[in-house]
Amino acid sequence: MAKKVVATLQKGGKNFAKVIKAVKSEKTGAYTFREEMVPLDQVKEALAKS
Hints:
The protein has 50 residues and is α+β, with helices and mostly antiparallel strands. 34% of the residues lie in helices and 36% in strands. It is built from two helices and two strands. The chain has helices at 2-12, 43-48; strands at residues 16-24, 31-39. A hairpin with a 6-residue loop joins strand 1 and strand 2 (31-39).
């Protein structure tokens, strides 16, 4: 199944970027990472929003 997923991303995933942001928890103070796939032209907007 993993091969099928990789093949799918290689065909249509060239116009997308994976954005990974570190988000600090107010309760514990620990950092967690939030990942999302966004179109290349919306990367700056995705990084700017909290």
